[in-house]
Design brief:
Layout: H1 8-18, H2 46-55, H3 58-62, H4 81-98, H5 103-112, H6 121-131, H7 138-153, H8 160-167, H9 178-201, H10 212-218, H11 222-237, H12 247-289, H13 296-301, H14 307-316, H15 320-331
Helix pairs in contact: 2-5, 4-5, 4-9, 4-11, 5-8, 5-9, 6-12, 7-8, 8-9, 9-11, 9-12, 10-12, 12-14, 12-15
Length: about 350
């Protein structure tokens, strides 16, 4: 091999392969770049580097101990925030593949979309939104995680396209790329279907409880419903400048979503609402008054951001178990012994 030849030919080969993607795909070489410019990697595109940075981040690792729907379930097969993230990534890649979009970009967005989620699922999100005068939304917090909080306040310095997809992944968002649109749909497909499985596993639902019309359109089993959704997206989006479902499948999906909110999510939220709200409220009030007790990486953020913002950063980054542990350490008295013998 020519010693003067650089390994950047690997990256260039990936660029060449991407030229065969849809004209609506986001090509890696056309990225708008990073907040802080960096020298390109010889072996990976910028979107591939973003994916790797997210996977190795502390926030990503903590997702395994964050509630999706059911808090601390007894059983190894319930969905956590991490397994939900993997589900979204897999579905997003499937959509991107069949539409000839950029799978690496879709995967990076999917893996990072919930990094800012709170402990105790959406209950935690609602509590912080109520406590902070600045509000709190997990998608906005996910962007803050990758921009500011990770790596001791330096952030991950991700590309514009990944950051845009993360903050716009909710159904109300407007992603700038087709890959971001794929992730937004994949998120909905994933959580509706795996949450149905968890609800049935927990005895909250029976399969026969599901809305008859939606089941008839989408399918009885999870794999059928996911396959129906992806196939429908392909039929309605291939060769088009859009990633969308047909009106019929979207309507059935929304019907299932509404059903889950009414029959499962509100019930699951109520089971932990009072205790989670009490814990997070007291922790919020404590750390806003005692900022010196914040861990050093968060304490340093006070140089640039408000106390409210930084306390929300700390609390939202906690896992369920860690939040309980911190609450116990702060508010629950421990036994004291002088080392003598009781009389």
């Amino acid at each position: 091999m020519d010693e003067n030849k650089t390994y950047s030919c690997v990256r260039e080969r990936i660029y060449a392969n991407e030229e065969r993607l849809s004209p609506f795909a986001m090509k890696s070489k056309n990225t708008r770049g990073r907040l802080v410019p960096e020298k390109p990697c010889d072996f990976r595109t910028d979107f591939q580097r973003d994916r790797d940075r997210i996977i190795y981040s502390n926030s990503f690792k903590r997702l395994k101990n964050k509630t999706q729907v059911f808090f601390a379930p007894e059983g190894d097969h319930y969905i956590t925030r991490l397994t939900h993230t993997f589900d979204v990534s897999q579905i997003a890649r499937s959509i991107a593949r069949c539409l000839e979009l950029n799978e690496d970009l879709a995967e990076a967005i999917a893996l990072g979309h919930d990094l800012g989620h709170t402990p105790f699922g959406h209950v935690g999100e609602r509590v912080l939104a109520k406590l902070s005068s600045q509000g709190f939304e997990h998608n906005v917090q996910s962007l803050r995680v990758v921009d500011v909080i990770e790596k001791g306040g330096k952030g991950l310095n991700l590309t514009w396209e990944v950051r845009n997809g993360i903050v716009n992944h909710k159904s109300s968002g407007k992603p700038a790329t087709k890959e971001g649109e794929a992730v937004s749909l994949a998120d909905r497909i994933a959580y509706i279907n795996h949450d149905i499985e968890d609800a049935i596993r927990a005895g909250v639902l029976k399969e026969s409880d599901l809305p008859e019309r939606a089941v008839k359109i989408l399918g009885k089993q999870t794999k059928e419903r996911i396959n129906t959704a992806i196939t429908d997206i392909y039929r309605n989006s291939y060769g088009e400048n859009a990633v969308r479902m047909s009106d019929e499948v979207m309507s059935a999906t929304n019907e299932l979503r509404s059903f889950m909110f009414e029959k499962v999510y509100e019930l699951a939220n109520k089971s932990i609402q009072e205790r989670a709200e009490r814990m997070l409220t007291q922790l919020y009030e404590y750390f806003t008054k005692h900022t010196e007790k914040l861990p050093k990486p968060y304490y340093r953020l006070l140089e640039r951001d408000s106390v409210e913002r930084v306390v929300c950063d700390y609390l939202s980054g906690m896992t369920d178990r860690y939040a309980i542990s911190v609450f116990e350490n702060v508010f629950i008295p421990t036994t004291f012994s002088l080392g003598g013998v009781e009389n």
